[in-house]
Amino acid sequence: MEIPKIVGAGLVVIGVGMGIGRIGGSAMEAIARQPEATGKIQTAMLIAAALIEGIGFAALFAVGD
Fold this sequence. Notes:
With 65 residues, this protein is mainly alpha-helical.
């Protein structure tokens, strides 16, 4: 694997980690403000995290080619 591809893969992993972390933090803040909406917030958080992770996997596979 060439150096630019390794750097690209690393940036993808860092970006995905930051995105999922930000979603989790924002969801915790939202739950703290409105505890009665916990179920809806968690559902939206999990869907968004799964979509981000899927995009990350797709980017990693594209970098690996």
